[in-house]
Amino acid sequence: MGSDNAQVGGVGGTGGTGGVGGAGGASGLLGGDGGNGGDGGKGGTGGTSGAGAAGANGADGTRTDSADTARGESGGNGANGVTGGAGGNGGNGGAAGSARSPGGHNGTMGAGGDGGNGGHGGNGGDGGDGGNGIHLVAGLTGDGGNGGDGGHAGAGGAGGHGGTGSSTGKTGDTGTITGTGGNGGNGGNGGDGGDRDGDVLTGFRGDGGRGGNGGNGAIGGAGGNGGTGGNAGHIDSGAGFDGGAGGYGGNGGNGGHGTIADGAAGNGGNGGNGGKGDYGEDGTGTAGGNGGSGGNGGDAGHSSLGDGAAGTGGNGGKGGDGGDGQVDGFTGGNGGNGGSGGLGGHSGAGDGAAGLGGAGGNGGNGGDGNWGNPGGYGGNGGSGGPGSTGGVGGVGGNGGNGGGAAFTGAAGAGGPGGAGGNGGTSIGQGIAGGAGGAGGNGGIGGPGYALGGDGGFGGHGGNGGNGGDAALGNGGTGGSGGNGGSGGTGSIGSGGTGGTGGTGGTGGKGSNGISTKLGGAGGLGQAGSPSTVGSGGGSGGSGGSGGPGGVPSP
User: Fold this and answer.
1) How many whole angstroms separate alpha carbon 542 and alpha carbon 123?
2) Are the C-beta atoms of 405 and 368 separated by less than 8 Å?
3) Any alpha helices (H) in 180-259, and if so which ranges?
4) CB atoms within 10 A of CB 548
5) Quick one: pLDDT at residue 439?
6) How far is the CA of 53 from the CAs of 10, 162, 164, in angstroms?
């Protein structure tokens, strides 16, 4: 135990070892589960200015072989670190025991032990990885163990990462779960989803595990990134089963708010990418699996009342690609959708920079069809996050490309682009409104034998934010296809100029001048898209000239 004399705090106790799983019966019955590891002891309190000691690591689980099968022990939990000290890492889960039986029947495989949880402390310990299931030709395999959760951090410390979910054995029929990132000064990253194989006996699809969510940031800390979704494992049979789906990407954690003074706010964590879908198995012909959706970006923290900068929203994760259809003719899997960008944080009352919206994730590509069957659709691009308090809106994600097709099959259409985020309206004196984010590009249509797939629609641009009510408060510029924002009202100077419209958009209105000053000019109307007329210019403020109209495009 620490004292006020800056001595080091006591070390946390080690987690207890899990009990050994019971042996299976002679006739091939399921063996008993191993006991869970004991929790680590709480660390002693550190001295006033002393550095806390690290908690001990949890013990690894052991592999057990018995007459039949036994579950691998769970790894012990990492001990809790003392105040200021790092938490110990959780032990890894033990591998499953092999299945043997003198009674002539193969028992069901034991599952891999779970990873222990990381200890708490100055920095949270990482969760242990789950143990792998083991392949046995004549029987089913056990599950891969779950990843342990990352430990929570003390003030200002980083949260531990979630452990990775382990793969199942070759013919395992269930998937694995990942641990989540611990909360802390910087949120821990979520663990990745485990890959998962299907079951050759039943045709059960092996979907990838979902990525863990990133932890939230504490004061001023960044949110953790979401874990990547696991890929679908292939069913190696010949019976013609559908391909498994990719796992979803985890969501990014939210950024922490700034301090009361001028501390900057934390950024939102990025969403994890979706896993890839598996291709269909040869034989009777099967569809490819769909790609997993990308996780959403975390929201940024707000800055304080002072001049600290606001955080940027996290980016959305990319959607996973769809799997291809196989020989005897089935459709390609669809691409996963991109995740949405996170919100930009609000800036403070001072001169701190406004938060930017996060970019939307790109959609996954569609898988190819085969033998006259259609290709998969491209995934949708994620929407850009809106800017805040004059911040720029995030860019929309691009749509995924469509899958191709052979012979008479229809090619897949490209996915639509995501919408750009709106620019934030300024609340500061004389600060321009934020520009709207550009819309994402539509995906390319897949190649076809007779007819190619349609291209995806482009995303709409975000609208520009309004300028602040001050002498030079200009309206934000509209994104592609968006409308320009209005200029701010002048106080002792001229009115702000209206924002320029995006392609095909209307120019913003110029604001009114005060006293003898001129009103702001109307924004320029941009050219229309092909076969459309140009948009009108924005109207001028009092005493200001109107903006010119856009010309028609050829």
Assistant:
1) 60
2) yes
3) none
4) 16
5) 66
6) 7, 22, 26
- C-alpha 74/C-alpha 392 separation (Å) is 48
pLDDT, tens digit, 9 for 90 and up, residues 462-519: 666 655 554 444 444 444 444 555 455 444 444 444 554 444 444 555 544 444 444 4
Q: CA nearest 302: which of 350, 252, 342, 267?
A: 267
CB 149 within 8 A of CB 189: no
Mean pLDDT of the chain: 53
Judge contact between 80 and 9, C-beta under 8 A: no
Largest CA distance in the chain: 102
pLDDT value of residue 319: 72
Alpha-carbon Rg for the chain, nearest whole angstrom, is 29
- Cβ distance 65 to 96 under 8 Å? no
Beta carbons within 8 Å of 330's beta carbon, 6+ residues apart: 242, 280, 285, 286, 287, 288, 369, 370, 373
End-to-end CA distance of the chain: give it in Å, rounded.
80
- In whole angstroms, what is the distance from residue 213 CA to residue 357 CA? 20
pLDDT of residue 296: 72
pLDDT band of 212, cuts 50, 70, 90: low
Q: What number of other Cβ atoms are within 10 A of residue 236's Cβ?
A: 11
Q: What is the DSSP letter of 451?
A: S
Instruction: In whole angstroms, give the CA distance from residue 457 to residue 463.
Output: 18
3-state secondary structure of 121: strand
Instruction: Return the amino acid letter for 461.
Output: G
Alpha-carbon distance of 164 to 518, in angstroms, equals 63
**CA–CA distance, 174 with 140 (Å, rounded to integer):** 11
Please give the angle made by the CA atoms of 219, 224 and 230, to the nearest 5 degrees: 165
* Residue 546: predicted pLDDT: 42
- Tokens for 209, please give them: 């595990």
The mean pLDDT value for 321-330 works out to 62
Choose the most confident range, by mean pLDDT, from 40-44, 128-132, 456-460, 536-540.
456-460
Tell whether the model's pLDDT for residue 139 goes beyond 60. Answer: no
Distance CA 190, CA 223 (A): 11
Distance between CA atoms of residues 145 and 165, nearest Å: 6
pLDDT at 315 over 70: yes
- Residue type at 235? I
Domain borders along the chain are 76-98+109-203
Q: Which residues of 73-95 are buried (b: 16+ CB within 10 A; e: fewer)?
A: bbbbbbbbbbbbbbbbbbbbbbb
User: Mean per-residue pLDDT for 241-245?
Assistant: 63
Distance, CA of 170 to chain centre? 28
pLDDT at 74 over 60: no
